[in-house]
Amino acid sequence: MSDLGETHGTQPAARAADSTRRQDAARAAAATRRQPAAGDAAATRALTADRLRALVEHETPTGDRARIAAAFQTLREWVEPALGRPGELVTVDGVDHLLFAPAAEPYVLLLGHVDTVWPLGTLADWPFTLDADGIARGPGIFDMKAGLVAAAGALATASDPSRVALLVSGDEEIGSLTSRALIEQLAARAEAVLVLEPSERGALKLARCGASIYRVRFEGRAAHAGLEPERGANALTELSRQVLASGEIADAAAGTTVTPTVASAGTVTNTVPAQAELMVDVRARTLAELERVDRWFAALAATDPQVTIAVEGGINRPPLEQESSRELFALAQEAARDAGLAALDGVAVGGASDGNFTAALGVPTLDGLGPLGGGAHARSEWVSLDAVVERSRLIAGIIDAIAARRRGEER
Ligand SMILES: [Zn+2]
Questions:
Q1: pLDDT (0 to 100) of residue 36
Q2: 18 alpha carbon to ligand 1 midpoint, in Å?
Q3: Which of 16-25, 105-114, 238-247, 354-363 bottoms out in mean pLDDT, i.e. has the lowest?
Q4: Which residues form the domain of 312?
Q5: Does residue 346 contact residue 358 with C-beta atoms inside 8 Å?
Q6: Are residues 168 and 236 in the same domain?
Q7: Nearest to 388 by CA among 374, 400, 371
Q8: Which of 270, 287, 317 is the endpoint of a domain?
Q9: Same domain, 217 and 166
Q10: How many domains does the chain have?
Q11: Are residues 359 and 233 in the same domain?
Q12: Which residues crowd ion ligand 1, with CB under 5 Å?
């Protein structure tokens, strides 16, 4: 259940006045929203560096509600003037997410997360730094505070931000448990989703593998291993047969892996094991492949008729298939050319993101819009300051290109 934040406290009667005020605010904001002139490149760069520092210096481990709220406040100070409308906290099961709802539909959904994998206190011995070569470092800078800074810059320069929504979630690093439904609900009404996750050496992420997890329980019958082993039904032997069989359903050519990862069986050395348990990790590039493997697990039957098998689990994250990003990538490449940026590359990667959820709904999704950098989840995390500025321009360019395409269609 979602407990909507303070901006939903407004009564309907107050809404008209409120909306006038918002329009005034939007106009006031527009004055400050102009793309800095070419001569202002240094100012833009300095502002971007300040914002990187500010956001990295908010430590935001997943689950730390107060610190995440403080980081959200900083984001609101940047994004509210750019959009001319307020952000709202959406709280789901005690976890806060920051939403800037769109002012009109259809819209482009920018998707990011503020939480990092770094525990509180990391900053004390690993502070934010920016060296003379423009390399910025600090906990969470690549995954993905730099992506949020780039998005804030883009919203200040996009020509029509009324058609943009921004969701910054607070629990991505632990699997988006409370934000998933919100992400899907917003994505379902969006015309495109731009995911602010780290790039792959500057390249966009055009496809991501999907993943399934299975737990298989084997139930046999115990017997004395010395006196009458023939009266037992060996759950471990059956597990072993199924481990080997599962290897045969993998398909290297299709990129489908089936990896037994954890197993346990037995109690003592002189007893035929009655129970065994197996965990299997599955990765695939297409939903069809995940479903093929899923059918295999659903139909799993023991070779030994005296052993029963129970399967739990299934498809966990659907893949982000290349088809979902094809059109948006072409449009992004054009936007990069128009903005005078370097040619854009795109790659397929193994890891999953919230983009997997939105692509599975059939919504065009482009991922990896964060800047050039590296070392996600590692002490070596870094980003290029100039790349953050360039990504701001790219994201603004993509938003504008989608707007132009929409106007073309509506005409
Ligand atoms: Zn991330």
A1: 53
A2: 35
A3: 16-25
A4: 210-317
A5: no
A6: no
A7: 371
A8: 317
A9: no
A10: 2
A11: no
A12: 143-144, 197
Cα 115 to ligand 1 centre (Å): 8
Q: How far is ligand 1, taken at its centre, from the CA of residue 150, in Å? A: 14
Residue 216 has pLDDT above 50, yes or no: yes
Cα dist from 351 to 253, 317, 348, whole Å: 19, 10, 9
pLDDT in tens, 17-62: 444 444 444 444 443 444 455 448 999 999 999 999 999 999 999 9
pLDDT the model gives residue 17: 46
What sign for the dihedral angle of Cα 384, 146, 173, 281? negative
The tokens for 38 are 């070419």
* pTM recorded for the entire structure: 0.78
189 and 251 in a common domain: no
- What pLDDT, on the 0 to 100 scale, is given for residue 35? 46
Q: How far is the CA of 214 from the centre of ligand 1 (A)?
A: 25
Spatial separation of the C-alpha atoms in residues 297 and 279, rounded to whole Å: 12
* pLDDT for position 386: 97
Tokens matching residue 192 = 């495109």
The Å distance, Cα 133 to ligand 1 centre, comes to 25
Domain boundary among 299, 317, 335: 317
